[in-house]
Amino acid sequence: MIDKKLIPIGGLKREPFSGSHGGMRYYFQVDESKETFTVTVFPEPWSFDKTADENKEHTSFPMSDEGMDSAIEWLYEMYEKKKEFWQDSLKNSMHTVYNKK
Question: Looking at residue 84, what is its pLDDT?
Fold first, then answer.
């Protein structure tokens, strides 16, 4: 899913990081204190900003290598916990239609 080497702690302090795996999108963002960061998961197909808050789950971790390890472990747990939901959101995202007016 995700390799810790792809998200260096120093880089996360400068800008958020996002990605997806099997219908589950994730978003890493440093908190105001710069001592912790929050990871949010949400279903495909929309971006973090375009997804309703009620469709997001998040938790915070310390800004450290251990915190990053815990965050990645949490991502794996969230994916396995709701695997069918994530896979359905991926399949259903293919049916999203843009209506021109």
Answer: 96
pLDDT band of residue 61 (cuts 50, 70, 90) is very high
Amino acid at 34: K
Phi, psi of 49 (to 5 degrees): -70, -30
> Taking the model in full, what pTM does it have?
0.88
Q: Do residues 85 and 43 make contact, with C-beta atoms less than 8 angstroms apart?
A: yes
pLDDT per residue as tens digits for the range 26-52: 999 999 999 999 999 999 999 999 999
**What angle, 0 to 180 degrees and rounded to 10, lies between the N-to-C axes of helices 65-81 and 83-93?**
80
How open is the CA angle 74-77-81, to the nearest 5 degrees? 140
Instruction: Identify the residue whose tokens are 């990605």.
Output: 19
Q: What is the DSSP string of 49-100?
A: TTS-GGG-EEEEEESSHHHHHHHHHHHHHHHHHTHHHHHHHHHHHTT--PPP
